[in-house]
């Protein structure tokens, strides 16, 4: 499954945020009994009002949301790429993830030691990103060396070596792989896919503030927000400590609480949704009396692939899909009504499933 790795310097609030995410997982744990609980992984339901609305209409025995996996990646300190601290294990864990949530300290608190002595988010980001770049440089250097040895026997490696060397030069200037200008180059893509370079992954910058930083941006938040914008990356502001205390509150209580801080947007929800979006994921729904459920697919997946998420047999034996858009479903209130009103569509194997489609698959076994 796809996952997001949480990184950041020590004492910036990573564990606090991870605890909040874990509590969000456990708040729904009755529905997630199938998940093996791993200490550094939270399988977090993606808040989605649509699925609650569908449940209201269908009144099923069970409701299941889509989920996003967050992995707490501890141990990144300056020097990690040289194997200091938990360096190597850290790097192995982070390679497995598809996106990175970079938590940055934007709160001032003399009781919480800052590893570099002062709050300075841009410097902190640079420290972390330098380590990530160095790790990628190492991976690339190793690969180039190996490919050069193989080149005698396999001349087709030449363009890949050239691509890897060009990427290396880019990284050696202190830049992230994600900003490499020639991303569409086939050899470059191959190298990126094989090595799963860390700095080529999608990045979400997460400014962690005190409760009173939630309203207007402080100077630290402004700096991080601008950097994210410059890079075309996602940005979220959150108070990890507050989220940890608030997780599990009823929606109304929670909203009131946010309002009292002049905030309209729940941070944890935003992180989860941004994560889901950053991974290129969407949800379609199945709505039956046993279960109303969101299924996670990639934006652009066709009907048979989408069916395969439920069961591989559904993909192999795919015949057709009966599809109702979410809006139509809610407007008419049931599958039968939608069928009668002529808004249920029959779609074939080339159909690209849309976010919010309510789908019924027909298949051969
Ligand atoms: P990690 O090392 O990045 O995992 O950081 P932790 O989550 O363990 O947080 C380090 C310390 O900072 C803990 O004592 C937290 O309670 C505290 N902390 C986390 N978020 C905030 C915050 O928004 N404001 C303040 N004042 N302290 C925070």
From TrEMBL:
Parts forming coiled coils: 130-157
Q: Which cofactor does it need?
A: Mg(2+)
Domain OBG-type G, residue spans: 2-258
Q: Which domain of life is it from?
A: Bacteria
What InterPro entries would the database entry show?
Answer: ATPase_YchF/OLA1, Beta-grasp_dom_sf, G_OBG, GTP-bd, P-loop_NTPase, TGS, TGS-like, TGS-like_dom_sf
Tell me one GO molecular function of this protein. ATP binding
Any keyword ATP-binding?
A: yes
Keywords, comma-separated and alphabetical: ATP-binding, Coiled coil, Magnesium, Metal-binding, Nucleotide-binding
Its Gene Ontology cellular component terms are: cytoplasm
Residues that, per the record, bind ATP: 11-16
Domain TGS: start-end pairs: 280-363
Q: What does this protein do?
A: ATPase that binds to both the 70S ribosome and the 50S ribosomal subunit in a nucleotide-independent manner.
Family the entry assigns: Belongs to the TRAFAC class OBG-HflX-like GTPase superfamily. OBG GTPase family. YchF/OLA1 subfamily.
List, alphabetically, the HAMAP family matched.
YchF_OLA1_ATPase
What is this protein's name? Answer: Ribosome-binding ATPase YchF
Q: Where does this protein come from, organism-wise?
A: Pseudodesulfovibrio senegalensis
Q: Which gene encodes it?
A: ychF
């Amino acid at each position: 499954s796809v996952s997001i790795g949480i990184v950041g310097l020590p004492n910036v609030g990573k564990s606090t945020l991870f605890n909040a995410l874990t509590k969000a997982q456990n708040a729904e744990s009755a529905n997630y009994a199938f998940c093996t609980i791993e200490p550094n992984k939270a399988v977090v339901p993606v808040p989605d009002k649509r699925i609650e609305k569908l449940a209201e209409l269908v009144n099923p025995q069970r409701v299941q949301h889509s989920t996003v996996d967050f992995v707490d990646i501890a141990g990144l300190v300056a020097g990690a790429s040289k194997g200091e601290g938990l360096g190597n294990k850290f790097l192995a864990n982070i390679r497995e993830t598809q996106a990175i949530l970079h938590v940055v300290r934007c709160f001032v608190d003399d009781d919480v030691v800052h590893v570099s002595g002062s709050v300075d988010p841009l410097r902190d980001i640079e420290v972390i990103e330098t380590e990530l770049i160095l790790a990628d440089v190492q991976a690339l250097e190793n690969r180039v060396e190996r490919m050069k040895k193989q080149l005698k026997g396999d001349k087709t490696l030449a363009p890949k070596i050239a691509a890897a060397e060009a990427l290396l030069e880019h990284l050696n200037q202190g830049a992230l792989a994600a900003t490499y200008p020639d991303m569409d180059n086939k050899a470059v893509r191959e190298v990126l896919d094989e090595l799963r370079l860390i700095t080529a992954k999608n990045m979400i910058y997460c400014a962690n503030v005190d409760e009173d930083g939630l309203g207007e941006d402080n100077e630290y938040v402004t700096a991080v927000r601008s950097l994210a914008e410059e890079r075309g990356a996602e940005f979220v502001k959150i108070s990890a400590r507050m989220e940890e205390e608030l997780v599990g509150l009823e929606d109304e209580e929670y909203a009131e609480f946010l309002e009292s801080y002049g905030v309209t947007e729940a941070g944890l929800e935003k992180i989860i949704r941004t994560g889901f979006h950053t991974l290129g994921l969407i949800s379609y729904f199945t709505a039956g009396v046993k279960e109303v459920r969101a299924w996670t697919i990639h934006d652009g997946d066709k009907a048979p692939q989408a069916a395969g998420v439920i069961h591989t047999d559904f993909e192999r034996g795919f015949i057709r899909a009966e599809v109702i858009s979410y809006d139509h479903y809610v407007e008419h209130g049931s599958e039968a009504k939608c069928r009668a009103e002529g808004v249920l569509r029959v779609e074939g194997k080339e159909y690209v499933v849309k976010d919010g489609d309510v789908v019924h698959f027909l298949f051969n076994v």
